[in-house]
Amino acid sequence: MEDCLSKKVEITVSEAEKRTGRNAMNMQETYTAYLIETRAVESQNEGQCSPVDSLWRRYSEFELLRNYLLVTFPHIVVPPLPEKRADFVWHKLSADNMDPDFVERRRIGLENFLLRVASHPVLCQDNIFYSFLTQEGGWKEMVNETGFQLKADSRLKALNATFRVKNPDKRFTELKHYSDELQSVISHLLRVRARVADRLYGVYKVHGNYGRVFSEWSAIEKEMGDGLQSAGHHMDVYAASIDDILEEEEHYADQLKEYLFYAEALRAVCRKHELMQYDLEMAAQDLTSKKQQCEELATGTVRTFSLKGMTSKLFGQENPEQREAKIKVLEEQIQEGEEQLKSKNLEGRDFVKSAWADIERFKEQKNHDLKEALISYAVMQISMCKKGIQVWTNAKECFSKM
Amino acid sequence: QDASLVEANSFSPSLPTSPSSMINQYKFEEEPELRDLFITVDDPESHITAIETFITYRVVTKTSRSEFDSSEYEVRRRYQDFLWLKGKLEEAHPTLIIPPLPEKFIMKGMVERFNDEFIETRRKALHKFLNRIADHPTLTFNEDFKIFLTAQAWELSSHKKQGPGLLSRMGQTVRAVASSVRGGVKNRPEMFTEMNDYMETFSQKINVLDKIAHRIYKEEREYFNEMKEYGPIHTLWSASEEDIADSLKGVASCIDKCCKATEKRMAGLSENLLPVIHEYVLYSEILMGVLKRRDLIQGELDSKVDALASKRAEKDVITEEIGKLEDKVECANNALKADWERWKQNMQYDMRAAFTNVAENNLHYYEE
């Protein structure tokens, strides 16, 4: 935490620009590029204006960076990217990736992602991440050269492990349940919030119709005319105010979304643990069966059914030399296996220890961020009510003058 | 004819009709201590006979007027009876603005004719109807009105059977339609043309307002429905959390409070603004009818004047008839003019009150 990149370097994603180019299949495509600016903090403290380094990156490069981090640091809860496609949209919000509001919110989300990585004690020290921020050309090649894609665990393997593992660490099992619950409750909340926003939009906007009718009606009234006309103006103000209110709420929704996606990152760590644990259990099982085989060959007793045993019974026993050779091979394998098991055990314990440390760090961050988000939501609601009070106080005054 | 002459005297053009004095006169009528007729409509009851099912409402009258034999009356009336009363009032005072009755049927979304909401809305409107008549300086002394408030069921039935029958009333309606088909009246005083133009625009605007107000109510109800689901999600979430559980529960309870506030706001709309606007939608139809009836009366005069021009022989007879008709027209015009001013004052007051109420409800909503 003390040596985090974020303390030394100021990072911003300051602009977004539409670009056209040719994709891998030589077809024309339109995409958005984001400008990443970095500036050293220290020289600012000395009162000097330090130079700004900048380069452009597109969303797919961010994705590549994150995938690299996921594979390279499987024990870390890797911060999530803002959503690929607009989800949880309500009526007025566009689902179009090119929509300026969506691009703006994505820009903020990408900046947030970089800041999260830069302030993570482990992740911020990674070279690839540093190059992402500073080296425009050749970065993609650099990442691919690390060969991280080969290290990635296959989905199938992970799934298999999840079902077959016998003794995962109970804390991870609980964590997995928690992340499932978190994901389900936040996505439900976001869905309903979008519907509530839609309805609220409707209520406010219909009041705008009052404005027009009041104005037309005031034309035929002598005494009521002024009151009606000015009241109508306030109804227009009321109807227009909802746009800003709901835009602010979108930022709140984005904060919740980040933790919705964080739940997936949590699950990734749990999956890694299950995989390692399963690996360990398989290795132990393998070792045990080899030891047994060895014993059987040495003593000539068949305690458990084995195909080899059957065939040798049917087709005749091996001669003593063959048996000795087999035993030797098995003993070597057993030795290897025991060493492997020891290192796997160590690996597993190290993983659990470091993963759990990061999980604790994450929990604190999550509690802090969510509490602040809830508070800011409440503040937003209060501000909305204050605006409402102001408009309706004015309207009431106009009505009473009718 | 004599009754309408009496009308003219109470509203002769020499009385000041400036807005401020009219307001004072209106306020005078509204002072509770100076009111001497109090009417309530309540207690709807269902009656099932072999032929039909219908609802009766209890009408309670308390009065200190000497014309009334007693100071308290309690009768039961059904919708048909109210319709009869309105018809009689229109007959007796063709150019006065008789308050609207709730509609016979509501087309939109009616599943059952006698569901509770429908009955309650109707009851409130009937209550308003009778009170508006009671507050009207002329209508309040109408004989049929008195009978309506005081007669027992059988008395009312036998009274209803007297007087001009259905056929004569139909005749009037036919003539009215015929005259309106013939086109606008040629000698219509400017004032009434202005009234006509005003009513056309007013009618348009009030109908649009009716739609807007209903739409707002609908949107608020949908918002309320979504909010009902929104709060509990936070409570559910708090069950998986430790540190932030209290914050989440806090948000949940706030959302629930907002829900209740929304309910109150909706109730305010449906109890105050919506019925008022609806009443004035009906009023705009009534006023168009009143203006047509005035035109009709004037039309009678005009056709007699034309007849005079062509038939020299019966000059005296026609001249006498014209004299009477001229009086009739003058009375009708004055009655309408005065009642119009009164109606406009009421409308202004009602609209101001209704919309101020809406503003207050919204203030309370946001404060909560």
UniProtKB/TrEMBL annotation, chain A:
Any GO MF annotation of the entry: phosphatidylinositol-3-phosphate binding
One biological process term in Gene Ontology: protein transport
Keyword DNA damage part of the UniProt annotation: no
InterPro entries: AH/BAR_dom_sf, PX_dom, PX_dom_sf, PX_SNX4, SNX4, SNX4_BAR
Domain PX: 12-140
UniProtKB keywords: Protein transport, Transport
Transmembrane segments: none
PANTHER family linked: SORTING NEXIN-4
Name the UniProt record assigns to this protein: SNX4 protein
Lineage: Eukaryota, Metazoa, Chordata, Craniata, Vertebrata
Automatic annotation (TrEMBL), chain B:
Coiled coil (residue ranges): 308-335
Top-level taxonomy: Eukaryota, Metazoa, Chordata, Craniata, Vertebrata
Family: Belongs to the sorting nexin family.
Keyword terms, alphabetized: Coiled coil, Protein transport, Transport
Domain (PX) ranges: 35-156
Domain of life: Eukaryota
Protein name: SNX7 protein
Biased composition (Low complexity): 10-20
Ranges where the record places region Disordered: 1-20
A single GO BP: reticulophagy
GO MF assignments: phosphatidylinositol binding
GO cellular component, one term: early endosome
A Pfam family per the record: PX
InterPro entries per the UniProt record, alphabetical: AH/BAR_dom_sf, PX_dom, PX_dom_sf, PX_SNX7
